Structures are given as C-alpha cells and as structure tokens.
Amino acid sequence: MRANFGRPLSGVRVVDATSLLPGGLATRLLADLGAEVVKVEPPGGEAGRHLPPLDDGLSVYYRLTAGGKRVRFLDLKTPRGRAALDGVLARADVLIHSLRPGAARRLRLSERDVAARHPRLVQVRIAGFRGSERPLTI
Length: 138
Known about the structure:
By secondary structure, the protein is of the alpha/beta class. It has helices at 21-32, 60-66, 79-90, 101-106, 111-117; strands spanning 13-17, 36-41, 54-55, 58-59, 69-73, 94-97, 122-125.
C-alpha cells in the first residue's frame, strides 16, 4: 500500500447516522480527509435538508455538511431498514450517530447491540446533553 498524505483516511469506511451540525461537520471532515462516508437518512431526508437559506431547493447548511458523502435512505423503524443498515455496517470501520439512548435501544443501535453484531466496528455517539447516559458522555 502506498502512502497517501493528501488523503490519510483513504480506505476507512464511516457510516454517518447523525443529524444536524455537530455530526454533519465531524463526518464531513472525515470525508475531506479521504474516508468513504455513507450518510444514513430517513425516507424523505433529514430535517437539515430544508433549513433556510435554500439554494435550488436544498439547504445551504445541508450542502456544507453533506458534501463528499454518499446518502442511503433507510427507514430504521422497520426490520427491512435495520437489516439494510446492518449490511452497510458489515462493510464499515466506524459508526457515528447522534441518537438519544432510548431511540438507539429501540432501533437496536445501542452500543451493546451494535457490538454484538459488529464487534470490530468503532462506535462514536455524539450526545446533545452531557450525562444523557453516563456522567461523562460526550
């Protein structure tokens, strides 16, 4: 393998199941550094697609945070959508999500659930509030 100093994360596969700014910018940076980022959105897209100001019907904010990513529309509330996500995760190195702990459990995306199905996957959860699950969750 040749060194690629311009794209140091080339070959790393990231699944972005975040919404809004913190996760969007974090995964955009990973894409800019060469990671292959797959953004998972609900059918119809995430709410950030429609935040003003709009440019040609799409949020300027969304264009900033979604650049360099491939998008998969999956309904994670259905068994079929969760199975499709498991297929994506089977080929991934990293999962980044911003689900609240209760939602993650209902969707079978809690840390334990994901680790049981994908033990080598690095998991990152971006929490909206400190201590939402543990005292030092970030």
